Amino acid sequence: MNFPLVFIDETRDLFAQAIERARAKVTDPELLVDKVFQDAEFSFTWYWQLMGGTNFRGFTRVFDIATGAGYLMWMLREAKGCDVFGNDVKSEYGVIWRELGIADRVSIHQIEPFKPAICRGTYDYVVATAIMFNRIDGNKANLWGVEEWKFFFFNACAHLTYNGEIYLCFNNKADELPTGELLDFLERVGQSEGKGRFRVTRRSFLQLHFHAH
Ligand SMILES: C[S@@+](CC[C@H](N)C(=O)[O-])C[C@H]1O[C@@H](n2cnc3c(N)ncnc32)[C@H](O)[C@@H]1O
Predict the structure, then answer these.
(1) Is 144:136 a contact under the CB 8 Å cutoff?
(2) What predicted TM-score, i.e. pTM, was given to this entire model?
């Protein structure tokens, strides 16, 4: 593993170089490359802020659920020295994962309601940003409710270290942010940072769940 990058400009330059190498290789029109690459600059700034507000540190094992192009995995490894893993349903991102050097850390796996999102390993952090895997049959008008999320947390907790933490960042669109019963549940189980962002520790989820029954 390389020594972690600490300067934002240095990290940004290396990231841009990797993205350009990937862009040159992408031939699959299905990949919506322009959209993916347009998102890169936005994602970079946002992820940098996100990492600054956490206690991610060298050799922390992180699982990034539905990593997409893998930007967050790349940054956590390069800038923070984390040992990163992730998954996504879209194998077409492979060309980008290869250029970012994370292809061997990503599994192609479709998350479904009441089926494990994480299948092996133990992690200090489970991260999910701009979440879309909670769309039932890909339909954003039909999102997971409390029971689906409970199953998700049970599975994620089984793959967390004792002090492990889950960081959920919902797709920041008004019609996909949690409301009602789900919002109440997430606020009880975790610490809310507003705008659909929640930190849930293994202990807080298990305590709440077992006390509730
Ligand atoms: C909005 S993107 C976010 C990607 C990345 N987490 C980020 O913040 O840039 C949502 C990702 O979820 C993936 N996805 C959607 N439904 C999924 C599912 N059921 N299982 C696994 N991945 C899924 C998509 O392929 C896409 O890469």
Answers:
(1) yes
(2) 0.91
